[in-house]
Amino acid sequence: MNIDRNILFTLQHCESIGWKSISLLMKAVPSPNEINMLTPADLRNILPISASKVNAFYKQFHSFDPLPKMKEYEDRNISFMTVFDHKYPPLLKNIYDPPWVLFFSGKAGLLEREKKIAIVGSRKADEYSSASLNFLLPQLVKENFVIVSGLAAGADEMAHRKTIELKGETIAVIGGGLNHIYPAANRRLAEWMKTNQLILSEYPPDTRPQRWHFPLRNRIISGMTQAVLVTQASRKSGSLITAEYSLNEGRDVFALPGRMDSSLSEGSNLLIQQGAKLITSSEDIVSEFAYNSYKNI
């Protein structure tokens, strides 16, 4: 098991490949350790990347020593788990494309909590999201829900901060490495959460966030929760991507109704038109969790 973990850890640090290439490698061999035996010619037949990238991957994979890097992370209070580990979140493991590795700082036990709900919304979320969360979160915290969001500006930040103010528990899933918090305005919040709550990412800690990371990050937010609540969202909001992931994985989607003349409500109102549950109180959410059994997802 440790060998398999080390192989995944190494693969995740190889810059020439991504999730799909790792998936193809895993399918091509009986066990991860046998990736060590693949020649450049073998790799060219397996991976849908250029010969130059194959050569770069082969060199990096065989020159990388995971143990010093693991020790470096441990010294910085950064841990990791792989999809092979028994503590890997079962809900997340069951999505179409679960992260091979999760890097995290904070209270890993929050991943094992049964009731987790994602709260997402526009980066431009206004007083309506703030007031709505003030109204909804006290009861959710009292009912021991863990609030999951993405540490972005706007609704995400509101969800984290208000949960913390209520002495609740919250998880942030970020789009870069743990050493590169974005946006910069939330770095102090992130540093506090690394000790007192939980922050995680599928990217190695020194990875700088890229624009394309954030839509992929959304699959983790939805994948590790039983439901997602959208507070405010425009028609092109990334929050709708999170909602779509949830729908595709058979999870519940909730949305707050918004003003007809507000662009920030176009996306959330559209979700309600398409079948998302309209939320007017925390009881609407609590009752859905009581009615549905998520243990078999």
UniProtKB/TrEMBL annotation:
Record-linked InterPro entries: DprA (IPR003488), DrpA_SLOG (IPR057666)
Domain Smf/DprA SLOG, residue spans: 80-289
Biological-process GO terms, alphabetical: DNA-mediated transformation
Domain of life: Bacteria
UniProt record similarity statement: Belongs to the DprA/Smf family.
Protein name per the record: DNA-protecting protein DprA
Annotated source species: Rossellomorea vietnamensis
